[in-house]
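Appendix B. Raw example, untouched.
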Amino acid sequence: MNKQRIGFALGIAVLAGLCVMAILNLVKNPVEARYGDIASIIEADEIYEISILYDGDDGDGGQDSQSPAAKMRNEIASRASLWAPIVDVPPPPAPPPDWNKLLKGIILTRTFIGEGPERKVKILKDPKDTVGEWVGAGSRVNGLLVKEVTDTAVVFTTFANGKEYEYRMLFRR
């Protein structure tokens, strides 16, 4: 019985210690302290100046205040032409075609003729159109090429900006 109490007391003590450590970690975050140190160095602009004292010979017998490495680093950093871009930034890629605009007014019906690659579907080019038009693979609709007709969709393709774009228009349920 006494061993159980000791074990229980030890467990409570460990749990309390862990809670205290968690609260201390929340109050005093070492990452935020390091961030503050780095921010103050950046604000003081100490990164770009090397101030290592050097008691070496600079060629004329006198003493120099900077090491040769610091001189070279500062000389390189002072040349703006070294940091200029070598190649111009490429232009952004052209946007894909606006399928809503290209397929405006097109309504797919669920009326099919044929099977496989010879399958054709009846489409209405205008909401007022009652007759429609039969299209299959290879047909053109509003300047778009019909690539494939399946049970669930019609695949349209167009070439723009040197690329082939594909759009799958699903049948409405």
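End of appendix B.
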